Amino acid sequence: MSISPLKCCINxxxxxxxxxxxxxxxxxxxxxxAVHVDVMDNRFVPNxxxxxxxxxxxxxxxxxxxxxxxxxxxxxxxxxSYADARVDSVTxxxxxxxxxxxxxxxxxxxxxxxxxxxxxxxxxEPYLDMLxxxxxxxxxxxxxxxxxxxxxxxxLPKIRRARAAVEGSGVDVAIQVDGxxxxxxxxxxxxxxxxxxxxxxxVYGRPSPADAIESLRAKGQLAFATTTLxxxxxxxxx
Length: 238
Ligand code: DX5
Ligand code: ZN
Prior knowledge:
This protein is an alpha/beta fold. It has helices spanning 22-27, 52-61, 75-84, 100-109, 156-169, 185-192, 201-204, 209-226; strands at residues 9-12, 35-40, 66-71, 89-93, 113-118, 136-140, 174-178, 196-199. Helix 5 (156-169) packs parallel to helix 6 (185-192).
């Protein structure tokens, strides 16, 4: 079984950007791996952001791929339309889906990567058999709904168990973390096994989003290089 080295991705969250100037805000993160787009409906979470028309327009002007995070009810109904917008990935919350396997397959059939998200208190174990159906598992490190919250360390063991399951299954599933990722917490999340990092305030809240992305990426990569969790991550020679 060959396992590729973990790729560290920094996906800034548009939730912390200026919603009146989205095109300019996207240009400021042109060095990111993707832009994380938080869609909220004021039902699944107590907040409201943007919907499909804005996402379709962002897809047309963005210099980086769109990583869409749907925090919406009735997600089985709505998620396929986001895939049709030709974004790179669509992530739905398992708590909002009646038929997550069917939905993941539908997203892939429409040419989009399928992501599945877990709220902090949702266990990963019931869904491990679903890993081959997914391109990404999003483990929330805050309660979804708002930017600028503190990272929940209580979620770290779940990230470790998810990483062990991914490595054990041999499938290529990215593990994304979202919420409270900073230059301090990214190291703990990466050491636990996450490899895709969403950062809102830690990127857009800084004078230079480009510098913030570079610095977060360096911290994430260093954590991978020093952890023995992943078979291909050998500690640096002294
Ligand atoms: C929260 C959103 C996050 C949020 C992260 O529900 O899903 O993507 O923007 O913001 P920070 O990085 O500020 O915690
Ligand atoms: Zn998000």
